[in-house]
Design a protein that fits this description.
Elements (H helix, E strand, L loop, with lengths): L6 E4 L1 H5 L9 H12 L5 E6 L12 H7 L7 E5 L3 H8 L8 E7 L2 H8 L3 H17 L4 E6 L3 E2 L3 E2 L2 H13 L8 E6 L6 H11 L8 E5 L6 H11 L3 E4 L19 H10 L8 H15 L6 H7 L1
Helix pairs in contact: 2-3, 2-11, 7-8, 8-9
The protein binds 3-hydroxy-3-methylglutaryl-coenzyme A and magnesium ion.
3-hydroxy-3-methylglutaryl-coenzyme A binds next to helix 4, helix 5 and strand 5.
Length: 304
């Protein structure tokens, strides 16, 4: 393994719950997020300030942010697609998110399906959002989805990913303070795809400065994470018990399960800061809410 420690952002409350049909109360979401922040993850992506027409499951983002426990020192982030989303986030005053996540893609079709905008238009929308975040000293996470393949257009040339990253850097994303988060949206990647990706983007975004966001549709996410760690990646998104998906990526399953990543790393001597037992509490809570078993392997073996 390369890094001696990795940073984990838990995305279950956002990437997971955005994709669940079951109505989950604000109380239950808040309890889930509080359990996650007690587990030792560095960051929790708690909700999205996107259009409630597009993602009704997260239409209660304000209430969630008003009520979660902020005493743990965990960074709480939220997705924001445009100025309206940022306005909503900032209206929360001292209860606002600690970090703002904007999102675009390396696939034109996915970008349109997900945000009703071309890649260029999403970047235009980011301009005022980035400017205001900088004015407010709020760090930014900039997601690039479909870094290996698109659910509509198939394989994506890594050169296109490099191009989008370069455009984000031109817009003022500063990887010493902000994150560039590479989304393998549909879970098709194998380790050689991850090598090709980092080979192609390395001159604009070194692995050590990137975050990797893997989905586990085909059971290859952990292998990809392992290869990425060998290449120097030290920041990963993952979701509790493998919850997740994207409503605009048909067929995509949940994220890499946080417990699986923690287990692999800790067993191999790489520190995550996460206590598995605490994470299992969060997984059991969300399984009860959804009324089904969740797919994470370590959660099923030891925590369910
Ligand atoms: P649009 O329909 O083109 O926007 O959507 P619009 O400006 O025409 O607005 C339509 C309506 O939405 C209006 O309301 C706006 O006020 C309202 P109306 O006048 O009809 O009553 N609206 C908003 N309401 C609340 N908050 C807002 C907001 N903006 C507009 N921020 C838009 C454009 C970007 C808003 C829409 O496409 C959208 O919200 N998309 C988000 C979709 C989404 O959340 N997808 C999942 C997250 S991305 C993901 O999962 C991938 C990731 O995990 C990485 C990976 O795996 O690759 C991150
Ligand atoms: Mg995702």
């Amino acid at each position: 393994m390369n890094a001696s420690a990795i940073r984990i952002t838990e995305v279950g409350p956002r990437d997971g719950l955005q994709n669940e049909a079951a109505a989950i109360s604000v109380d239950d979401k808040v309890a889930f997020i509080n359990l996650l922040s007690a587990s030792g993850v560095a960051e929790v992506e708690a909700s999205s300030f996107v259009s409630g027409k597009w993602v009704p499951q997260l239409g209660d983002a304000e209430e969630v942010f008003q009520r979660i426990d902020r005493s743990s020192g965990v960074v709480f982030s939220a997705l924001v697609p445009n100025e309206k989303g940022l306005e909503r986030a900032l209206s929360l005053g001292h209860k606002r998110p600690d970090k703002i996540a904007v999102f675009t893609a390396a696939s034109e079709t996915f970008s349109r399906k997900n945000t009703n905008a071309s890649i260029g238009e999403t970047l235009q929308r980011f301009k005022p959002v980035i400017a205001q975040c900088k004015a407010e000293a709020l760090p930014i996470r900039a997601y690039v989805s479909c870094v290996v393949a698109c659910p509509y257009d198939g394989p994506i040339d890594p050169a296109r990913v490099r191009d989008v990253i370069a455009r984000l850097l031109d817009l003022g994303i500063d990887v010493t303070r902000d994150d560039i988060d590479l989304g393998e949206t549909i879970g098709v990647a194998v380790p050689t795809d991850i090598e090709r990706l980092y080979d192609a983007i390395g001159d604009v975004l070194p692995p050590q400065r990137s975050t990797l966001h893997l989905h586990d549709t085909r059971g290859t996410a952990l292998a990809c994470a392992y290869r990425a760690i060998q290449l120097g990646v030290a920041s990963f998104d993952a979701s509790c018990a493998g919850l997740g998906g994207c409503p605009y990526a048909p067929g995509a399953a949940g994220n890499l399960a946080t417990e699986d990543l923690v287990y692999l790393c800790e067993q191999m001597g790489t520190t995550t800061g996460v206590k598995l037992d605490a994470l299992f509490n969060a997984g059991r809570h969300v399984s009860r809410l959804l009324g089904r078993t969740l797919p994470g392997r370590v959660f099923c073996a030891d925590g369910g």
